[in-house]
Design brief:
alpha+beta, 16% strand, elongated
């Protein structure tokens, strides 16, 4: 196992307070060789477990995750009716949705209205 000192330097977000001794910072990050977790964050003062740490995502992994999240959101919007706020905005701009329109249809129409106003 590899141990890293987490002194709160650049990029370190491991400043959680220890539940045992109350120390903040100076924790030890232990990279795990087996199991579900990438690392164990332990108190550098008393050695108590603080939390499990997930493996950091690469920029590509984060981009793919955001893309999948966006696709899921758009798919969900295509299954429900527009909100009252969407309908009010569309009506205030003298537009109208077709019967049976979804929240996604309203989203695209609002996007069009906003682009026309630029």
């Amino acid at each position: 196992m590899q141990h890293l000192c987490c002194d709160g330097g650049a990029g370190m977000i491991y400043d959680s307070a220890c539940r045992c001794c109350g120390a903040i910072g100076g924790h030890v990050l232990t990279l795990m060789e087996t199991g579900h977790h990438w690392a164990r964050l332990g108190c550098g003062h008393c050695g108590a477990w603080i939390k499990w740490v997930a493996k950091p995502r690469t920029q590509e992994e984060e981009r793919i995750r955001e893309q999948n999240k966006r696709q899921y959101q758009l798919g969900a919007m295509a299954k429900v009716l527009p909100t009252e706020k969407q309908l009010a905005f569309i009506t205030a701009h003298h537009r109208q949705l077709q019967a049976g329109a979804t929240r996604l249809d309203a989203y695209h129409l609002i996007d069009l209205i906003l682009k026309e106003g630029q």
